[in-house]
Structures are given as structure tokens and as C-alpha cells.
Amino acid sequence: MFYRPEDGHGLPHNPFNAIVAPRPIGWISTRGPTGDNLAPYSFFNAVAYVPPQVMFASTSTKDSLAALRESGVFCVNIVEEAALARMNATSAAFPRGTDEFREAGVDKAECRTIDCPRVGDAPASLECRVTQVVDLLGQDNHLVLGEVTGVHLRDDCLRDGRFDVTAFRPMARLGYRDYAVIREVIELSRPPAG
């Protein structure tokens, strides 16, 4: 099968999300004039080491985007298997001003380097200052870039001096309504320079 996105795919469901998978989930928390907000984004990733930077894309006008445009900050919370139901609950289309932390029963804590809430029991949280919001092609497609200014690591996720993803089993987004749990890790060394 081959298709041009501009012509449509002819399938019952768009395959694009399922092709680019698995994708990490950025559980983005913000604070704005209408209150605190928490929403999952599966177009999320780390993009640079020094200084550490992340990105996520919003494919509609959401409260998170409005809040971070005004505040200039956001926090990325890493989703573990134990939080899957709560993460999913925060994806509901709540009315503006609803505190998704409260609605979904998510533990809330304050960030240290920015004025923003974070998921208190997340395996890791990345406090970020917005460096750029890029309007992408299409209607309401936006890329948010941020510099990480503070990092929270849950103590039980540190093993032998490493942040160990097997300690909490991270969630990943596949396509459609599908998710994956990371349960097996394979370690590879890079080949020597030739």
C-alpha cells in the first residue's frame, strides 16, 4: 500500500500515529490564570543534552498551550505503568479552569526552579522554561521547545548510580488506543570508532 497524506489513506483509522511508535509520553503540567493543568502528550521527546532540552507538540488549542505561552514554563512528568489510568483520566476534555490533578487523583507537588506544579510521585519530572513555540503547518499544530532547569528523580528509581527505567516500567504510546509498557531492557555498547 502507498498513499499520499493529502489524498487520504482509505483506511478506517489514520495509520500515521501507529507507524511512529513507540513514543514516550510527556505528562505536561502548567499553571495559568485559570489554575493548574495536567495533560498527556505523545508527540514528546528529549532533543539536546547541553543544555538539556525537550519538545512536545500540541495538535489542538489546549489549556496547556495557553498557560505556558503566558507563564513561559511547563513541567514534563514521566508516566509509569502504575499511573496509566490516572494519566488517561487527565486526557478528558474538562472545562477550562478544571484542575486535572484533583479530578484524576494525581499527587501534586511544587517545582523548585519554576512556578508550576508537578506530579509528586512521578518517576522523574523535568522543570522547563519555554525557549520557543513554533506554529506548524495545519490548523492548531504547535511545537513547544523548552530548556530543562530542574530535574526530580524518585529515589527508588536510582540504582547503582543510574536512573533505572526497569524500576518503574515506563509507558509508551503506540497508535489508535494502544499503549506499551517497557518491561525488558537490552543494553548495547557502541562499536569502536573505525
From TrEMBL:
Pfam families: Flavin_Reduct (PF01613). SUPFAM superfamilies: FMN-binding split barrel. InterPro entries: Flavin_Rdtase-like_dom, Split_barrel_FMN-bd. GO terms for molecular function: FMN binding; oxidoreductase activity, acting on the CH-NH group of donors, NAD or NADP as acceptor. Residues 18-165 form the Flavin reductase like domain. PANTHER family: BLR2425 PROTEIN, FLAVIN REDUCTASE LIKE DOMAIN-CONTAINING PROTEIN. This is Flavin reductase (DIM6/NTAB) family NADH-FMN oxidoreductase RutF.
